[in-house]
Amino acid sequence: ALPWPTRPYRDDRLALLVPRAHALARRAAVKLEQIADAELVGLEDGSAMVLALERAASAAGRVLHLRTRVGSYDSMAAMVAQGVGVGVMPVAVARQAARNRGLRCLTIDEPWAERRFLLCTQPLDALSSAGRSIAQLLAADSPNANPASVK
Question: Quick check: 151 pLDDT over 50?
Answer without folding.
Answer: no
